[in-house]
Structure prediction request, 138 residues.
Amino acid sequence: MVALSCLPNMTPEQRAQFMQAVFRFEPLPPDWPTEFAIITAYDPDGRPTTAEQNLAADQALADELRAAGYRLHRITGGSADGVHREPGWGVPIGLPGAVEFGRRYRQVAVFCVRGREVSLVACADGTAEPMARPFRAV
Prediction:
């Protein structure tokens, strides 16, 4: 398990980048729930790290989520131009649980999907801000 740490507040620059995020993924299974979160373990505290550290954190997150009984679907968030990509996991989990896993893996934010709406959720305090577009794959 990854230790909790003090999370930095989301900077205006981070918020702007998160709000522009696009999602890449294979079609969701037909029985996938309409409410789920997207959680990544990449780049803790909003700081770039090595590929090896990101892969290890991603595997630890997946293992911990599966051990807790959650179903996972790979969803990669990132910039529209594809320059920045962070593989994460679609997880049918409530918002408090998603924020807790985000904090545990030192994330600045997670995403919450409800139907076709997607929101940015700050891990520091759990506040959610709807994004200005529907959730879909690019």
Observations:
- Residues 1-8 have pLDDT under 50 and may be disordered.
- The longest helix spans residues 51-67.
